[in-house]
Amino acid sequence: MAGITRRNFAKMLAGAVVLPALAPVMSRSALAATKEFKVALLLPGTISDGGWNTLAYQGLQSLKKSGIKVAWSESVPQAQMEQSIRGYADDGYNLIIGHSFEYGAAFTEIAPDYPDTDFFASTFKPAEAAPKNVEYINLAYIQAAYAAGALAALISDKGKAVGFVGGGDNPTQQGMMRAFILGAEKTRSGIKGLGVVTGDYGNATKGREAATAMITNGADVIWHAADVTGLGALQGAIAANIKAIGCYTDQKDVSPSHIACSFKQNLDWVVAQVGSAAAGHAFKGGEEWSPSVAKAWSVIYGSTSHNASLVSDSAWQAFQKIWQQLDTGALSATA
């Protein structure tokens, strides 16, 4: 597994994109009524990573098809963020999207210098007060993780334990681990939720080792939120011949006989919606957008929702109730 690259990872994770049936990207005819609108996307990784960056890039391409002029920069190091942001702003781009949590603070500092430019950061709002031309987002990570824990518990054959493998050691990943454990243990009496945050998104060996350790301790379903590290976790589950749940993209093709479903993050939809809103003068600067979990995420398995050979009808029905309650806020994903 140490030889897995981001390019191979992207190939293994390639799958159908499922978008929520919500407001479409602005039509070409509508855009024609305005002057040329330009959107720039700044990415922390490559557009071929098969996950976080690939999905945002796909959303940008949707905007391009609608008539918006687009540009993007891949693998932008933190030391060059300010230069990249100011470069696009100075070139007259109307909307600049920073696709990592670091852009939350960067935009707070830079945006006031460009009051006629809109900025969108794919992260939580960093402070109570934010520039009026910067929008942030809460992508319902915690609700999705709770749902994944609940589903893992429902499809566990032994009912002893289920496991989560996390990536970078940050508050979001730690929160997702806690929510996964809570969702599992509240959903099925007697089951134990296990979790490891590896501290790394790009190390498949670490992911496999973490999954194997939890499997040794009784886990018979593994979920991850860890990119390439997560692929290693899935391979650990496959090697042990247990069930696994994918994340970020449709991971059915990693092993159709072991993947129960995937929690796909609808980043493509997010980018398309933000670009369309800004082009239509409906950008909500100074705010944090909080789409519900069923808008921010899709539960998919190829062209359907789940692998019926691994998820019983009763388990799926029970999960659907939990998913709906999380979506409406009737069920809390925190203790």
The separation of the N and C termini measures 36 Å
CATH topology of the largest domain: Rossmann fold
Total helix count?
12
Describe the sheet with the most strands: 6 strands, parallel
Compute the average pLDDT: 91
Report the radius of gyration as a whole number of Å. 20 Å
Share of residues in helices = 40-55%
Query: How many DSSP E strands?
Result: 12
Share in β-strands: 15-25%
CA-based shape: elongated
Uncertain segments: 1-19, 27-34
Order of helices and strands: HHEHEHEHEEHEHEHEHEEHEHEH
CATH architecture of the largest domain: 3-Layer(aba) Sandwich
Q: Structural class, from secondary structure content?
A: alpha/beta
Q: Name the CATH superfamily assignment of the largest domain.
A: Response regulator
Report the top-level CATH class of the largest domain: Alpha Beta
Strand order of the largest sheet: 2-1-3-4-5-11
What is the domain total for the residues?
Answer: 2
Question: Which secondary structure elements does this structure contain, and how are they paired or packed?
Answer:
Blueprint: H1 6-13, H2 28-32, E1 38-42, H3 52-65, E2 69-73, H4 81-90, E3 95-98, H5 102-110, E4 118-121, E5 134-137, H6 141-155, E6 161-166, H7 171-187, E7 192-197, H8 204-216, E8 219-225, H9 227-239, E9 243-248, E10 259-265, H10 267-279, E11 288-289, H11 293-296, E12 297-300, H12 313-328
Helix pairs in contact: 3-10, 4-5, 6-7, 6-12, 8-9
